[in-house]
């Protein structure tokens, strides 16, 4: 069955969508809790779970589980009547270097047990592996993807096939992997091999991996970020176009006594109060969670789904970027990730909605938002002559043919558009930071360069002098206001 992925809303590169599978429709973005093979998954529904993920390789290796799965199906084995994604054993391959199973065997097995979403046996290259070795492993992965595609037909009510993107930390290999996987054709594209990056807080590398993959994939295809289970990364990943997450973190972190939140991780033994109102935290104390790993795991999963719902509402309200800016304050390296994403603003701008309700400038990274980039790029639509006045005030005693209001971070905006989105609907600080003023100055220079036949007059406060004074050498008449 060819997966049908329909979008209902979007913001930045994030989207709310419906993914149809043989066992029902799921709404993305969403989290897939990791369930051990043979464990009853029915309790997952209380968290709002729509789809789970379990391990086909571990199931295959156990004679008892394998026999049950073949006889009754993976849904009966897990007591789950909704969609199930099965992993092929790539994580075990990463951990143990080799597994006694062929790609064709595990793909066929996933079909046989009724998996809704199956995954070929890709090779997740380590992030410290050399370029040539990663390239060799990638070619093996691509050959296995081709083999899996021949095995799995696009039959109605059949298994959806996921084509995993690999390539370690090398941008060109991620791009190559994405292009080749797209040529083969899959219904879902997981981005693999990223867990070590998150474990080492290498969020800038994570952002580059996501975007270099995304830039070379079919824009409408759903993206699964393999192994991303901490709620503090969800908002940033969704804003970069990821739709599915799998979480073993809720249980693994609980085993280590760690209490998850969208703003970071806490050790439960050091906590006296629970800053959460989930069903666990509203009826339990910190000391009770210290003694009960299952309760702590439940909290971790509740908070994960809460964050997903918050992200969906942010998308609906066109506030996803603001939510991301709040979340990246959880860790300095996460903030580095957002700064790296800003460097891809030209690409992100292609997907971000043109019109929203308002623009909130909440940190220096706002100066690199796609709305700002788009506005400055579109300054070439103005053809000006005569005297052009650029000022921070909406009125002037000077004569002019065209009046532009200077507003950070956008730069000059014609008075006729000063009440329209984005400039007119922008909530910005009264005292802009340096990044906003630099961006506004670049827009001012662009407008002047695009209209050499016009005479420009600049009237603004002295605080702009360090950013715009050099324009006098280009013939701009400047009046500073104290």
UniProtKB/TrEMBL annotation:
GO terms for molecular function: pentosyltransferase activity; zinc ion binding. It holds the Pfam family TGT. The active site is at 87 (nucleophile). Residues 14-332 form the tRNA-guanine(15) transglycosylase-like domain. It catalyses: guanosine(15) in tRNA + 7-cyano-7-carbaguanine = 7-cyano-7-carbaguanosine(15) in tRNA + guanine. GO terms for cellular component: cytoplasm. Belongs to the archaeosine tRNA-ribosyltransferase family. Its cofactor is Zn(2+). Its EC number is 2.4.2.48. Exchanges the guanine residue with 7-cyano-7-deazaguanine (preQ0) at position 15 in the dihydrouridine loop (D-loop) of archaeal tRNAs. Pathway: tRNA modification; archaeosine-tRNA biosynthesis. Substrate binds at residues 122, 193. HAMAP family: TgtA_arch. Keywords: Glycosyltransferase, Metal-binding, Transferase, tRNA processing, Zinc. This is tRNA-guanine(15) transglycosylase. InterPro entries: ArchSynthase1/Queuine_TRR (IPR050076), TGT-like_sf (IPR036511), TgtA (IPR004804), tRNA_ribo_trans-like (IPR002616). Zn(2+) binds at residues 276, 278, 281. It comes from the Archaea. Binds 1 zinc ion per subunit. GO terms for biological process: tRNA wobble guanine modification.
């Amino acid at each position: 069955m060819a997966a049908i992925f329909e979008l209902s809303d979007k913001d930045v590169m994030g989207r709310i969508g419906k993914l149809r599978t043989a066992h029902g429709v799921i709404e993305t973005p969403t989290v897939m809790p990791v369930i051990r093979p043979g464990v009853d998954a029915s309790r997952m529904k209380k968290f709002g779970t729509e789809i789970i993920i379990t391990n086909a390789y571990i199931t295959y290796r156990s004679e008892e589980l394998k026999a049950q799965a073949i006889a009754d199906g993976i849904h009966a084995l897990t007591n789950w009547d909704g969609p199930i994604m099965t992993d092929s054993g790539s994580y075990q391959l990463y951990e143990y270097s080799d597994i006694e199973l062929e790609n064709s065997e595990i793909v066929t097995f996933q079909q046989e047990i009724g998996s809704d979403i199956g995954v070929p046996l890709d090779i997740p290259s380590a992030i410290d592996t050399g370029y040539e070795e990663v390239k060799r492993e990638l070619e093996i992965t691509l050959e296995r993807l081709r083999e899996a595609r021949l095995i799995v037909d696009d039959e109605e009510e059949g298994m959806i096939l996921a084509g995993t993107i690999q390539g370690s930390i090398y941008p060109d290999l991620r791009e190559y992997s994405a292009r080749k996987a797209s040529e083969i054709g899959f219904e879902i594209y997981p981005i693999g091999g990223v867990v070590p990056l998150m474990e080492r807080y290498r969020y800038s590398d994570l952002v580059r991996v996501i975007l270099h993959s995304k830039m070379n994939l079919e824009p409408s295809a759903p993206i699964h970020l393999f192994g991303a289970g901490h709620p503090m990364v969800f908002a940033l990943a969704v804003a970069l176009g990821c739709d599915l997450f799998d979480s073993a973190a809720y249980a693994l972190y609980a085993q280590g006594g760690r209490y998850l939140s969208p703003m970071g991780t806490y050790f439960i033994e050091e906590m006296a109060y629970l800053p959460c109102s989930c069903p666990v935290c509203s009826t339990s104390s910190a000391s009770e969670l210290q003694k009960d790993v299952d309760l702590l795991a439940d909290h971790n999963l509740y908070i994960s789904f809460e964050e997903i719902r918050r992200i969906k509402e942010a998308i609906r309200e066109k506030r996803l970027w603001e939510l991301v800016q709040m979340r990246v304050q959880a860790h300095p390296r996460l903030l580095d990730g957002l700064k790296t994403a800003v460097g891809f603003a030209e690409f992100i701008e292609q997907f971000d909605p043109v019109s929203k309700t308002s623009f909130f400038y909440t940190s220096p990274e706002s100066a690199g938002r796609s709305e700002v980039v788009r506005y400055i790029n579109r300054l070439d639509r103005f053809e000006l002559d005569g005297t052009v006045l650029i000022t921070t005030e909406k009125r002037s005693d000077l004569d002019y043919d065209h009046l532009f209001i200077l507003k950070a971070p956008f730069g000059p905006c014609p008075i006729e558009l000063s009440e329209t989105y984005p400039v007119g609907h922008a909530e910005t600080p009264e005292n802009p930071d340096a990044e906003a003023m630099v961006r506004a100055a670049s827009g001012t220079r662009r407008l002047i360069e695009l209209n050499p036949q016009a005479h420009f007059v600049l009237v603004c406060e002295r605080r702009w002098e360090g950013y715009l004074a050099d324009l006098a050498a280009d013939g701009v008449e400047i009046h500073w206001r104290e």
